[in-house]
Structures are given as structure tokens and as C-alpha cells.
């Protein structure tokens, strides 16, 4: 079904009861499955318009399933969700397709094209929420829609799909939503956060964040591992058990920490150890590392991070928004970032390569 073929009632109230989610992938799926019942509880007239690729349609039916590392599968009522394959620009004016809140759950690499498509979904007061990893995709949205309130949300856990309409959270953490400046928005989203706390305190903890910049730079540090996992062409566990690759990650993180210090950003602690301690732990010898960093290596032995999958599927990675963000900020302070530069160059080469290959830790370390 194409969006322009459907007539939707226009928003005439101050309530934000119509949500849109663009990007029907892993984060979009996990969010939709939880948001649908929360919204229904707050207001039975609420709805979610999901816009995604055709292949995702069956995942967004009237029931969706969620599970995580600690809970059994739950089937949730998602009757208030409607799936569309496209936002078209040929919408006649009497048809209002607008939503009150628009969650962007595509990858950073898709944001530039998404901003050209979402115009018909926005009314003057639509709040836009960017759910991307890395730094900088929200700036593209702000530039495109300077009059709109654009906020960010940070998802700390990883999500995989286990079956049709079944989204599974593989690790823990609270989703953080950037605190909102306007009182009406803050009040509405506080109610939403409370709804999540009441209904999904276990599988979808959600809370306010007062310093989203610091949080995203802290997440960006952790996500530097992503690129090395892609270059190792091994599972994440085997990548981390390899001292050479750990040294590469540690060096990239030290460069990142220098940049954050220059930016005056105090990184919050989002892992078991502080941001500054992570490179030290990674630098431990092989005989000590697995016992000290139990939570890092006590993971699914086959799991691979998203950049590995992006290369596998011949897609561009989010490297420009992760390692690239560190490199760009470093340039402003003349901070050298040789390891991030080298890793970025190799990932870019792999993005263009028809063949998949591994880049050894020795090559990255210049040994
Ligand atoms: N997955 C995780 O565990 C996780 C955890 C934390 C944060 N994040 C972050 O969350 C963001 C989303 O990641 P994800 O893993 O959910 O990505 P994903 O599974 O690839 O989902 C994004 C979906 O959006 C689709 N899409 C792209 N452009 C579109 C457009 N113009 N209109 C409609 N659909 C479009 C993609 O289709 P095509 O690929 O076919 O273009 C894909 O189906 C990323 O920044 C990621 O780093 C992910």
C-alpha cells in the first residue's frame, strides 16, 4: 500500500497521538512493537505509521513479538500500526498524512535521502527523533527542517530479528531520550516514558538524558570496535580475544578520548568500566584479558557487529559517523588520529571491493 492512496484524518488536537517510524529494520521493529501498546494505553485513538522497504511488510502486522536475553517471547498487540512502502510527494492538499512525532530509525547513511522524502509527514509542530548511532546525522535533519524540534535517542543494546515480526534484544541498557525544551513536548514525552516504565520496564527501559552530546560521544567510543570487527572478518568474540585487534581498538579509543577532552566533553560511564579505563583493559595480555573483561567476551560466539554485516551485504557502513566523527573533530584541534585514519581507509576500500577480505592486526599496527 502506498501512503498517498490512503486518506488519514488530519491532526486537529494538541495531543501527539500520531507517530511515524521511518526505517522498518531492527531498531524500527523493536521500537514499534513496544511503542504500539504504550500509545494505545495512553490514547486508544493513537496510531503508528511505519514506512519501510517492501520486504519488511510482514514484520509489521497486527501482532509483533519481542524477547530479550532475560525474558521469554511476548506477543504484543500492534493493531494501531499501519505499514507503507513509501512516502510519496504527490499528495493532494486535502489529504493530511502528517504525524505528530516522527522517529527516524534508518541508518546514518540513509538520512540524507530520507530528509528529501519526509516532508509530507510533517506539520509545523512535528517532533523529529533521530535514533542513529554515531555523531552528525541529526545535523542533516536540522539543516533540512530548521523550524522543527529535532531530538536524539540513544539505543544502548543490540537488536536482531529471530523470525517474522520477532525482534530480540541481545544486551541490556536503557534507551535515552534527549531532554526536550518545550514544556508541552516534555510533558507528553514524560507520560510516554512513564508508559514504557509501567509496561516494559524489563525489555524497553526508557529515560531522559540531559547531556546527549556526551552520551553519544561515549557510545561512539564503544562503537569504534565495530570497524575492527568488520576488518578482522571474524566473530566479535574472536576479534576481542586477539591481542593485536585489541591494541588497534585501544589506540583508536585513545585518539577518541583526546578529541573528547579537547571538545570539553566529560564522557559518562556507559560500560562496566569508565571511558578512560576501556583502552587499558583492552591492552591487557591475552592470559589476563578474558578473566578481567568477562562481560566483553561472554557473548554469543558467532555474533558480529553491524559494520561486518554491512560489508557482507555490500552496503556502505556508518564509518563516517563513528570513526569519521572522531577524525573530523580531531582536525579542528590538530590532534593526530593515525589509527582511525588507517581503519577508515581500509573500511572504505572494502566498501568498494567486490570481494570480502580480512585486514590483519599486524598490518593495522604497522608491524
Ligand atoms: N541494530 C542494532 O542493534 C542497533 C543498536 C543500536 C543502535 N543502532 C543504530 O540504529 C540505527 C538503525 O539501525 P538498524 O540496525 O535498525 O538498521 P536496519 O536494520 O538496516 O534498518 C533500517 C531500515 O531502513 C530502511 N531504509 C533505508 N532508507 C529508507 C527509506 N528512504 N525509506 C524507508 N526505509 C528505508 C533500510 O532498508 P535498506 O537497507 O534496504 O535500504 C532498512 O530496512 C543505526 O544508526 C544503527 O547504528 C542499531
Describe the structure.
The chain has 2 domains: 3-210, 3-Layer(aba) Sandwich (Rossmann fold); 213-365, N-(1-d-carboxylethyl)-l-norvaline Dehydrogenase, domain 2 (Orthogonal Bundle), CATH 1.10.1040. The protein is built from 14 helices and 12 strands. The protein has helices spanning 26-42, 108-114, 137-144, 183-200, 212-232, 236-240, 243-263, 277-282, 289-292, 294-297, 306-312, 323-332, 338-352, 361-365, and strands at residues 18-22, 47-51, 63-68, 74-77, 81-84, 99-104, 122-130, 149-154, 159-163, 166-169, 175-178, 206-209. An 8-stranded mixed β-sheet has the order 5-2-1-6-7-8-11-12, sandwiched between helices. Helix 1 (26-42) crosses helix 4 (183-200), helix 5 (212-232) crosses helix 13 (338-352) and helix 7 (243-263) packs across helix 12 (323-332). The radius of gyration is 21 Å and the shape is globular. The termini are far apart. Mean pLDDT is 93; it is low at 1-13 and 89-94. Bound molecules: NADP nicotinamide-adenine-dinucleotide phosphate (NAP). The site of NADP nicotinamide-adenine-dinucleotide phosphate has 27 residues, from helix 1 and helix 2. NADP nicotinamide-adenine-dinucleotide phosphate (NAP) binds at residues 22-28, 51-53, 56, 105-108, 110, 113-114, 117, 131-133, 155, 158-159, 306, 318.
Write the layout of secondary structure elements.
Elements: E1 18-22, H1 26-42, E2 47-51, E3 63-68, E4 74-77, E5 81-84, E6 99-104, H2 108-114, E7 122-130, H3 137-144, E8 149-154, E9 159-163, E10 166-169, E11 175-178, H4 183-200, E12 206-209, H5 212-232, H6 236-240, H7 243-263, H8 277-282, H9 289-292, H10 294-297, H11 306-312, H12 323-332, H13 338-352, H14 361-365
Helix pairs in contact: 1-4, 2-3, 5-7, 5-11, 5-13, 7-12, 12-13
The chain binds NADP nicotinamide-adenine-dinucleotide phosphate.
Amino acid at each position: 500500500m502506498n501512503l498517498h492512496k490512503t486518506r488519514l484524518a488530519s491532526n486537529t488536537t494538541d495531543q501527539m497521538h500520531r507517530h511515524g517510524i521511518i526505517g522498518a529494520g531492527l531498531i524500527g521493529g523493536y521500537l514499534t512493537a513496544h511503542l504500539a501498546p504504550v500509545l494505545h494505553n495512553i490514547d486508544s485513538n493513537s496510531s503508528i505509521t511505519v514506512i519501510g522497504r517492501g520486504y519488511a511488510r510482514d514484520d509489521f502486522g497486527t501482532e509483533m513479538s519481542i524477547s530479550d536475553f532475560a525474558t521469554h517471547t511476548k506477543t504484543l498487540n500492534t493493531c494501531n500500526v499501519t505499514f507503507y512502502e513509501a512516502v510519496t510527494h504527490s499528495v493532494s492538499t486535502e489529504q493530511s498524512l502528517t504525524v505528530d512525532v516522527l522517529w527516524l530509525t534508518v541508518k546514518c547513511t540513509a538520512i540524507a535521502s530520507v530528509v528529501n522524502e519526509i516532508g509530507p509527514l510533517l506539520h509545523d509542530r512535528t517532533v523529529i527523533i533521530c535514533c542513529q548511532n554515531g555523531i552528525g546525522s541529526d545535523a542533516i535533519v536540522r539543516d533540512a527542517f530548521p523550524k522543527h524540534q529535532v531530538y536524539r535517542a540513544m539505543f544502548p543494546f543490540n537488536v536482531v530479528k529471530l523470525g517474522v515480526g520477532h525482534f530480540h534484544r541481545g544486551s541490556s541498557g536503557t534507551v535515552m531520550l534527549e531532554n526536550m525544551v518545550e514544556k508541552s513536548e516534555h510533558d507528553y514525552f514524560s507520560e510516554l516514558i512513564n508508559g514504557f516504565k509501567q509496561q516494559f520496564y524489563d525489555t524497553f527501559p526508557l529515560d531522559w538524558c540531559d547531556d546527549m552530546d556526551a552520551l553519544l560521544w561515549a557510545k561512539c567510543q564503544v562503537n569504534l570496535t565495530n570497524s575492527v570487527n568488520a576488518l578482522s572478518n571474524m566473530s566479535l568474540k574472536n576479534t576481542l580475544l586477539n591481542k593485536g585487534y585489541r591494541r588497534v581498538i585501544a589506540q583508536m579509543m585513545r585518539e577518541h578520548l583526546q578529541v573528547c577532552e579537547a571538545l570539553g566533553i566529560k564522557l559518562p560511564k556507559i560500560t562496566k568500566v569508565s571511558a578512560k579505563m576501556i583502552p587499558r583493559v583492552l591492552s591487557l595480555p591475552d592470559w589476563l584479558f578474558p578473566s578481567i573483561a568477562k562481560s566483553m567476551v561472554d557473548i554469543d560466539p558467532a555474533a558480529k557487529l553491524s559494520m561486518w554485516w554491512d560489508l557482507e551485504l555490500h552496503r556502505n557502513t556508518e564509518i563516517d559517523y563513528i570513526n569519521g566523527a572522531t577524525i573530523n573533530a580531531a582536525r579542528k584541534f590538530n590532534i593526530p588520529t593515525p589509527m582511525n585514519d588507517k581503519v577508515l581507509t581500509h573500511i572504505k576500500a572494502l566498501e568498494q571491493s567486490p570481494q570480502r577480505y580480512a585486514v590483519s592486526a599486524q598490518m593495522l599496527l604497522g608491524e
